[in-house]
Amino acid sequence: MMVLFSRMKDVLFLLFLPCFCSAQPAPPLLRFSVFLDPSNIVYLRWDHDEQEMMSFELQVHTTGWVAFGFSPHGELPGSDVVIGGVFPNGSIYFSVS
């Protein structure tokens, strides 16, 4: 697993896919969590339900965007990446590659 993020500024961007992508209520508390950097700035929380649906929350100070990737070997080539952010007008975008 790897995390790419922009220079840290004043905006706190929360990536919480189930809330942004569906009208379903938010899942219960996310049971698992870890800081992904030695300075304890990038915080990841996650959980799964009985159907193995994964929920993630990524908290990080950004300039308005964040990228989050999954890789079997911890490297960018061959990884699955989600990029999300907030446009200056406040609208949210996500892209999966």
Report what the structure shows.
With about 100 residues, this protein is mainly beta. It has a domain at about 30-95. Helix content is about 5%, strand content about 50%. The chain has one helix at about 15-20, and strands at about 1-5, 10-15, 30-35, 45-50, 55-60, 65-70, 80-85, 90-95. The strands form 2 sheets. Strands 1-6-7-8 form a 4-stranded antiparallel beta sheet, with no helix packed on it. Strands 2-5-4-3 form a 4-stranded antiparallel beta sheet. The model is unreliable at about 1-20 (pLDDT under 50).
Brief rundown of the structure:
With 97 residues, this protein is mainly beta.
Gyration radius (Cα, Å) is: 14 Å
Q: What is the percentage of strand-forming residues? A: over 45%
Poorly predicted ranges: 1-22
Distance between the termini: 15 Å
Number of strands: 8
Mean pLDDT: 75
In helices, the fraction of residues equals under 10%
Main sheet strand line-up: 1-6-7-8
Tally of alpha and pi helices: 1
Run of helices and strands: EEHEEEEEE
Structural class: mainly beta
Shape: globular
Main beta sheet: strand number and arrangement?
4 strands, antiparallel
